[in-house]
Amino acid sequence: MSSQVTPEVLWAQRSSASEPEKNYIYLTINVPDVPPSNLKLDLKPTGLTFTGTSDTKKTTYHLDMAFYDEIDVDNSKTHHTPANIQMVLRKKELKEEYWPRLLKDSAKVHWLRTDFDKWVDEDEQNEAPEDDYLNQFGGGAGLGEDGGFGGIDFSKLGGGAGAGLEGLGGDGGDFEGEDEGAEEGDDDMPDLEDDKEEGAEEGKGKGKDSDAA
């Protein structure tokens, strides 16, 4: 039987009193090696419930959380990767002030941490370069094979955006571009060695100056 654990959750936020698209929560649920077929995500205005099983890690992840305030489910987005579940949750109430915390309950929990890669202070958020990440997250790439969990839209992240992808689950080979880079590096190595051998041959009888050249 697989053990059941509460996954690590990272969060950050932005706020706006006039622009809904700038009034949201970044949420990352770190659940490596959980395929879409093995998970259930129920997102509601007041909170979310997640259950997912990793066959490779023999672990079932379960999360039940109540938000500090309501979100707009229809304008929130979710993306599943081999390492995690990434979410941009639209806050329902337009308000300049940040939420004082993510959860309704003020008690601290060990599995929730601030996502410092995305977090900016409230008075500096207008200068923060968060738009690139947000555009990639919801940048018009239609629904993927994941389909939708409870009507949630899935969009495609570009080029490994989002720090939550780094160092999790050992699934780097599943991301486009990484395998290509490794293959190119392997192909280059024999050429470099050949160049050194040729240089050594040419350098015979010419002294050390040819090596420096």
Proportion of residues in β-strands: 25-35%
CATH topology of the largest domain: Immunoglobulin-like
Q: Looking at the chains present, what oligomeric state does this protein adopt?
A: single chain
Residues in helix, %: 10-25%
Structural domain count: 2
The largest sheet has its strands arranged as 7-8-3-2-9
CATH class identity of the largest domain: Mainly Beta
Q: How many angstroms separate the termini? A: 64 Å
Note the main sheet: 5 strands, mixed
Output mean pLDDT. 72
Number of strands: 9
- Rg, please? 23 Å
Overall form: elongated
**Uncertain regions spanning at least 5 consecutive residues:** 139-196
Order of helices and strands: EEEEEEEEEHHH
**What structural class do you assign from the helix and strand content?**
alpha+beta
Domain CS: 4-103
Region (Disordered): 150-213
Biased composition (Gly residues): 150-172
Biased composition (Acidic residues): 173-200
List keywords for this structure.
single chain; alpha+beta; Immunoglobulin-like; 2 domains; 3 helices
